[in-house]
Amino acid sequence: MTENVGNVIVSGRVRLARNYFDLPFSNAERPENAKLCVQRACEAMHNGTDDVYTLHVLNDMAKTNRMALVEQHLISRDLLQNSSVGAALIRKDQQISIMINEEDHLRIQSLIADFDLPAAANAAYETEALLGKVCGFSFDSQLGYLTACPTNTGTGMRASLMLHLPMLTRFKQMGNINQSVAKLGVTMRGIYGEGSEALGDLYQVSNQVTLGRTEDDIVEAVTAVGKQLIDMEGALRERCLTQQQNELKDTILRSYGILKYAVTMDEKEFMQHWSNLRLGTALELLPTSLCTVDELLTIAQNAHSKLYAADHESGAPVNVARCDLIRERLNA
Amino acid sequence: MTENVGNVIVSGRVRLARNYFDLPFSNAERPENAKLCVQRACEAMHNGTDDVYTLHVLNDMAKTNRMALVEQHLISRDLLQNSSVGAALIRKDQQISIMINEEDHLRIQSLIADFDLPAAANAAYETEALLGKVCGFSFDSQLGYLTACPTNTGTGMRASLMLHLPMLTRFKQMGNINQSVAKLGVTMRGIYGEGSEALGDLYQVSNQVTLGRTEDDIVEAVTAVGKQLIDMEGALRERCLTQQQNELKDTILRSYGILKYAVTMDEKEFMQHWSNLRLGTALELLPTSLCTVDELLTIAQNAHSKLYAADHESGAPVNVARCDLIRERLNA
Questions:
Q1: How close A262 gets to chain B, by Cα (Å)?
Q2: Of A247, A249, A254, the CB nearest to B258
Q3: Which fold, B5-235?
Q4: Whose C-alpha in A39, B56, B263, B282 is 20 to 30 A from the C-alpha of A193?
Q5: CA A255 to CA B262: how far, in whole Å?
Q6: Structure confidence by residue, pLDDT tens digits, A267-297
Q7: Optimal mutation site among A256, A258, A260, A261, interface B, most CBs of chain B within 10 A
């Protein structure tokens, strides 16, 4: 295992699905129950002193602001589908977000910037404990936690690592990897979860199964697969740096030049250049920091770009605003 | 006519074809005559004081050095074909070059950086007068100067303007223009003359016919067509700047970014970006000067890039050396 895990890992995440025991699953068609879930969650997390959590009620928000939360991975695309009842409690440091009235009553999400999934899991359990004080969760002594969709029943846990795997992608290894990790109960998804594309060569490695395994087993399995992928990606990077240095540098530096100078760019093209930008930063071929690069991943998406144009009153189309903000960051 | 003629014009050139009256045309198969032509030309141009002209004997030169003279437009590709007998006398300021043993015994070429073809013609006549003092030229009182190929008979003159016409090219106007100017006895060719591609959106506008027209008529016709093309190109540029500003800027700045950062690039791709670089410089969208840009046109070609790699002992492949020298100039 190489030391520079951060060169491949973008973030880690643990998510717990929970439902109040006294309410039927799924609140999409039950606005009164949905309201009650929001009230209970707020009661649990607002302790009367400084508010650490902010409540975001989707119905009260502009579409762009909702989408910005998706881009920050603080809420899911599925919650947008339930926007008439959906809400989220988001901790100020954005490490914890509690989605309310998504598929389940509660989805507790704990984000970390590195590899430490056990720490993320612990933060999620602490939040779960606070939420459970107001009202208990639907639990079966044989199955474990019960959920709206049976694929989440048991632990209700999804542990995932967001990995940047440009070399494995370029060398067409991802098909094989997908098949191999499936045997370990682990699955690879695109940047916005199930069914989404692997834009920017980003993959979410997460557990497929939630039932019949302990939380620790799940965290361990995802971590083990993540470590292996990091090693494989690292080995390919080193090989490329020795054997195809000019071509590799050329690809990376061209993307950097384009990001620094382009005037208009759509999201899909941005993600391609972003991948090269991150790879070049990790390989120390560029003057950028991983921190800046990973921040760009969020703020150069469509909703954030629209908000940037609005903030700067530039009236720029989204693809132009994206380039404005990218240039601002890269030249900072 | 806009004031910034230099935004479109890259160079002007007048070329005179001459043959010594006492020798048969074409020296490719007559090494003794070829040698005599070189001797006569040297005698005419070396006046005993400081040598203003340098003799380049192709047979004594490395292939790359010969090719570099082609890239500087100081000798023609046709002279390379005759490299066993070919030579060139080149004035130190590179404004005058005399090719010896190309298709004709002598090809006098006078280069200018601007629009002033009459001045270029005068400089060519002065050179011709000096050359003619040693031995007279093949001349017919009815036809004019006689040449190896009948298409050059008469004045033996080709007057040409090298124009950069990116907008006319992009808006697919060049086909129509070719047809129209043909009616005026004017022809459009690529950067390396007859049959060559219009790389970099560069076109040589020159007279088709050398017979039955005076030298002044030829210069006037080429100048008139050149002025009209400059106006047409200028109008399209202005329209684009108003109506498609973001797209135009994007194209230009991306090329600039790529030129500043690419690690390897072939000649053909370079010419595409060069065209955008020149357009952006002319439109004052880039910090570069037309002088630097036009210099790049020569020094970033294959032979010059190879010489650059050799000078810097970098051992870099030609496509990498090209990028090295481009970066050096653009960051200067």
A1: 5
A2: A254
A3: Creatine Kinase; Chain A, domain 2 (3.30.590)
A4: A39
A5: 9
A6: 999 999 999 999 999 999 999 999 999 999 9
A7: A261
